[in-house]
Design brief:
CATH topology of the largest domain: Quinone Oxidoreductase, Chain A, domain 1
CATH class of the largest domain: Alpha Beta
Radius of gyration: 20 Å
Mean pLDDT: 96
Largest sheet: 7 strands, mixed
CATH architecture of the largest domain: Alpha-Beta Complex
Strand content: 15-25%
Order of helices and strands: EEEHEEEEEHEHHEHEHEHEHEHEHEHE
Number of helices: 11
Number of strands: 17
Low-confidence stretches: none
Distance between the termini: 10 Å
Shape: globular
Oligomer: single chain
Length: about 350
């Protein structure tokens, strides 16, 4: 079958790889109908984590079940499903408490040796371990492209906003208008926020945020705190969602929060460091919550309801649809920030 593979730092190749086979009684094989290129894929693309040449990439996918192992009960051949980006066991202490992102046996599709060497989903077919846990059946009425991001970024945005404890009438600030910020903004409104401000320097991303009802703010043209002043009586945002993942964004998020407010850090961090004045946090009585990886399995059914009811719409995010064979062009577009989201069609 055809698949997108790592071909060295900064290079991908579409080539023939071995067909996936059932390896355990709880496996399934899924025929992929749509796959996304995620921001996390760019880390692997650039070789920022260990990757072997030939590793199949990708962890966002929707498709049709083709084959299941003897112990699989939740799905059967012919079912349309979304695949969770992280692979959980469903049985350990963390999984049993809704914290599947911390699973004792956790792996990830398409992340190379660092995440378990499980072949990714930017392929014609993919093997899914623990299929009953890591596949979500979707209604026939839900189009592939509206379902695709439930296995990763859409549910992550909903999860991050939920961690903020947003209540009716709140003012919410979202730092970053990339895919995560886009879904954070929609989720915040769905959870009851009266005003959602989105901060980003890129006009195209701000326009995307505005298209779903958020108030866009370019920090180079308008001071974010001044933008929120009239809405909040000068206090600042009740909840701030940091959706970038760098120290400058974190510092901005803290500055935007009102005294007694909540900051949810949903951007991805690795080796970055930040120096903070503990007295400032203490005096302002701030709540700072690091989201970590989203425990998709505990949240994707709720996120599915948001999509089905029209409160979260992923459609505007997709800027490019390309055949699987043009994956290299898709990676290049996304890497140059010329695409908001690229969908590959096997």
């Amino acid at each position: 079958m055809r698949a997108v593979v790592f071909d060295g730092a900064g290079r991908v190749l579409v080539t023939d790889v071995a067909e996936p086979q059932l390896q355990s009684r709880d496996d399934a094989v899924v025929r992929v109908t749509r796959a996304g290129i995620c921001g996390s894929d760019l880390h692997f693309f650039h070789g920022k984590t260990p990757m072997d040449v030939g590793d199949v990439l990708g962890h966002e996918a929707v498709g049709v079940v083709e084959e299941v192992g003897q112990d699989v009960l939740r799905v059967q051949p012919g079912d349309r499903v979304v695949i969770s980006f992280d692979i959980a066991c469903g049985d350990c202490w963390y999984c049993s408490r809704g914290m599947s992102a911390l699973c004792d046996e956790g792996q990830m599709f398409g992340g190379g040796p660092f995440t378990g060497s499980v072949p990714g989903a930017q392929a014609e077919r993919v093997r899914v371990p623990r299929a009953d846990v890591n596949l979500l059946p979707i209604p026939e009425s839900l189009e592939d492209e509206r379902a695709l991001f439930l296995g990763d970024i859409l549910t992550t945005g909903y999860y991050a906003a939920s961690l903020g404890g947003i209540t009716d009438g709140d003012t919410v600030a979202v730092v970053g208008a990339g895919p995560l910020g886009f879904f954070c903004a929609q989720a915040a409104a769905s959870l009851g926020a009266a005003h959602v401000f989105v901060m980003d320097p890129e006009p195209a991303r701000l326009a995307l945020a505005a298209s779903v009802g958020a108030t866009p703010v370019d920090p180079a043209k308008r001071h974010p705190q001044m933008a929120m002043a009239e809405t909040t009586g000068g206090r600042g945002a009740d909840v701030v969602l940091e959706a970038v993942g760098n120290p400058a964004a974190f510092e901005a998020a803290v500055a935007f929060a009102r005294p007694g407010g909540t900051v949810v850090v949903a951007g991805v961090y690795a080796g970055e460091t930040a120096e903070i004045q503990l007295g400032v946090y203490w005096t302002r009585a701030l709540t700072v919550r690091f989201s970590g990886l989203c425990p998709i399995h505990a949240w994707w059914e709720d996120a599915l309801e948001e999509v089905m009811d029209g409160r979260i719409d992923p459609s505007p995010l997709i800027s490019h649809r390309l055949p699987l064979e043009e994956a290299a062009a898709g990676y290049a577009l996304f890497d140059r920030r010329e695409a908001t989201k690229v969908v590959l069609i096997p």
